[in-house]
Design a protein that fits this description.
With about 325 residues, the protein is an alpha/beta fold. Helices cover about 45% and strands about 15% of the residues. The chain is built from 14 helices and 13 strands. The protein has a 5-stranded parallel β-sheet with strand order 3-6-9-1-10. The longest helix is centred in the last third of the chain and has 17 residues, at about 255-270.
Amino acid sequence: MKTSDSAMTADDFYRHSSEILRSIQTVIDGKRDAVQMALTVLLAEGHLLIEDVPGVGKTMLARALAKSVDCTVNRIQFTPDLLPSDITGVSIYNQAEHEFEFKPGPIFANIVIGDEINRASPKTQSALLESMEEGQVTVDGVTSVLASPFTVIATQNPVEMEGTYPLPEAQRDRFMARISMGYPDDAAELAMLRRREKASPLDELQPVVSTVQLIGMIESVRNVFVSWAVEQYAVSIAQATRSDRDLRLGASPRATLQLVRAAKARAALDGREFVLPDDIDALAVPVLGHRLIPTNRISGNGNPFVSGAVSDIIYRIVASTPEPLDAVGPA
């Protein structure tokens, strides 16, 4: 897997990724798929949206991932009275120097946890648009570059719950993937009760990967090979969403790009140096689902975002899109 100075060997990548997964799973019981998807997004340089009902571990997953990596971490609690400047920062007049000084907001960190993002107003939510797409913040005409790596892990409650604002389409499109936690099974819930009887395992969590090592893992993911046939396959799926009669908003070009990037991270975590069509298939719903809007005929109740209906449409599109026969690794 090592093809550049900053990338790491396949053995080192496997060792570090396994350590991160084990670390998070000491806190999150019985949710390996969600944990692996969170790590996939982090390594693919994307942003993750975790949507589910209260109390199932959304914020716990975000905090566990952040604490497993030795990076700067800030948490933003989104509330209706939160202002854009509370996120990006503000310029304050320094009377001693007779000039304005910029005080950075919590967005200036490697990992930013946005808790209950859809409880803030759309105006405040829009403060994240520039940072999530361009890795920078502009305040009073002055642009500041954010740290690298940079990722936002946001949680939100379902849009029909009281006191929530649906995320605008432009905001949803900046998240690489959306996942749900779901309720734990009996064994996982019992293990949680025993493990947290006296203390939270999150308090004992220590970083298992340094910032330099994380950068090396990200570079290794960038070097994963994607054949022309697999790229064409991803484009075909995205194109199909734009012409499907059950969708009034299809996947954006950004969605196609992030689908391939996530597939590269999934391949690397699976120990491969090249992407397979199976990677695209497995990631189609989490990467595309939150970006698509069904027609009123499908949503029925007028809700512009119906998770189950959209997932069924994506499964149908993926199943009807011919897989490439020559999707092989590099020569």
